[in-house]
Amino acid sequence: MQAATARTFPASTLVGLAPDELIVDSFAGGGGASQGMEQALGRTIDIAINHDPEAIAMHTINHPHAQHLCESIWKVDIAAVVAGRPVGLAWFSPDCKHFSKAKGGKPVDKKIRGLAWVALKWAGLVTP
User: Fold this and answer.
1) pTM recorded for the entire structure
2) DSSP state of 107
3) How far apart are CA 122 and CA 74, in angstroms?
4) How much is the pLDDT for 85?
5) Residue 8 buriedness (CB in 10 A; 0-12 / 13-18 / 19+)
6) pLDDT of residue 123
7) What is the mean pLDDT of each run of 10 residues along the chain (128 residues)?
8) Which of 27, 38, 39, 91 has the fewest CB atoms below 10 angstroms from its CB?
9) Which residues share a beta bridge with 22?
10) C-alpha to C-alpha distance for 22 and 2, rounded to whole angstroms
11) Is the distance from CB of 26 to CB of 118 less than 8 angstroms?
């Protein structure tokens, strides 16, 4: 029996991203999610956002091609950052360790769950 040959496609056609569409990592830490997006899409991310200077410094080392914003995701001037360009992918993976058992104990801060709502804010303000 002969093994099936995997059929490959350019990653950008799998998700339907146009070359001019921006890719945004909205909770950019060290850059693992950005690396995954880049590998999956076959191109670099455009914008990385995190409120923590150390996280942005690490992300800048790992992804020097991206525009880096060190500020709260809630305070980012979305319209100014995207400058009218369409956003093809905005990645929102907020920290879970403060409201789940991921930190190794009882949930610490339930209000951090509100970070997920920032995705709706972005969706209402950018052009897909």
Assistant:
1) 0.76
2) -
3) 10
4) 93
5) exposed
6) 85
7) 49 68 91 90 92 94 96 92 93 66 58 72 82
8) 39
9) 87
10) 41
11) yes
Note whether 85 and 64 are within 8 A (CB): no
CATH topology of domain 17-125: Rossmann fold (3.40.50)
DSSP 42: T
Strand partners, 89: 23
CB 87, CB 22: distance < 8 Å:
yes
Residue 9: the pLDDT is 46
Encoded tokens for 8: 């490959």
Burial of 53 (0-12, 13-18, 19+ CB in 10 A): exposed
Distance CA 109, CA 126 (A): 30
The number of helices, as runs of H, and strands, as runs of E, in the chain is: 5, 4
Chain mean position to CA 25: 2
Measured CA to CA, the distance from residue 106 to residue 23 in angstroms comes to 35
The per-residue pLDDT for 122 is: 85
Alpha-carbon torsion (104, 109, 111, 112), positive or negative? negative
Find the helix or strand (DSSP H, E) in which 49 lies: strand 47-50
Domain ranges of the chain: 17-125
